[in-house]
């Protein structure tokens, strides 16, 4: 009986990991072998969402979820609400919306229109208005880098709000007719890199946390962080720019987390990356000095976003400057700052 249980456990462990491996190998083959790269760049997101659905379903099946029928599985994989623009949803979430659909109220129409207007506002901001908000006449490499990074982020907000609108049209959302995918305010005015990562793509954050981070956490916090960002970059096809950004964010997040934890312990102050649910620190976040320190970390995060964002404005263009050239233009300053902060954690 013991041997049989061990064999059964090994089969359980292997099934979902094999699914992860097959999906990642397929994405990598498309990224590096597929002959028409222009077509692949335009359709990469579709395959990434499909891979995430397959992986999450395999994990859920091993955790006791029933095996869906072929037509239900096809509906999940080809759900019109998210097959084009995302986001990822779990099979349970899809099934609840499929079985428990309700008549929508007029507030749902207003909410959908509001989200669509936000989407096209950020589209305009990405293509046109960013030049007005941040004039190109300002001849400064950091201002120029911020403009490019801001334009890229606005294009992400456009897609995110457009996908939120399609999800609402597909019957998804809570009682307030909301299906939040991104939070631009938390990204543009972040308290830490962790808040940026969480708010950038909330459904994908849930996927990575549940099916990747918590699976690797038993090997240690640092390995779990880097492993999560590595898997995320592989799901993106291991495009070099995206991989460099994601792995760098992982390393930066670890340094920031470690430093703020050290400061919180040393000074008995509420300086952790995330606010305490029940704060027992001597110095609360309402303290003006604590607010000042958190503001400094927020400025460092914005600075890091500028540095990282310059890689993303030309992803997929073969004639674009290399990663080394782009970061070299900014003197690799963000790396030096993070190295300094990392050294401080040992003091």
Description of the structure:
InterPro entries: LPLAT_7/PORCN-like (IPR049941), MBOAT_fam (IPR004299). One of its GO terms (molecular function) is palmitoleoyltransferase activity. Keywords: Acyltransferase, Membrane, Transferase, Transmembrane, Transmembrane helix, Wnt signaling pathway. It catalyses: [Wnt protein]-L-serine + (9Z)-hexadecenoyl-CoA = [Wnt protein]-O-(9Z)-hexadecenoyl-L-serine + CoA. The protein starts with a helix and ends with a helix. The protein has helices at residues 2-32, 37-62, 70-77, 91-99, 106-133, 141-169, 184-188, 193-200, 202-216, 221-235, 240-267, 288-309, 323-329, 333-344. It has three domains: 15-100, no CATH class; 104-176; 183-346, no CATH class. With 347 residues, it is mostly helical. Helix 11 (240-267) packs parallel to helix 14 (333-344).
Output the keywords.
globular; about 350 residues; mainly alpha; 3 domains
Give a quick summary of the entry:
The chain is globular and about 60 Å long. It is built from 14 helices and no strands. The longest helix is centred in the N-terminal third of the chain and has 31 residues, at 2-32.
Q: Briefly note the structural class of the backbone.
A: mainly alpha
DSSP helical segment count: 14
Order of helices and strands: HHHHHHHHHHHHHH
Mean pLDDT level: 85
Largest sheet descriptor: none
Inertia-based shape = globular
Determine the N-to-C terminus distance.
53 Å
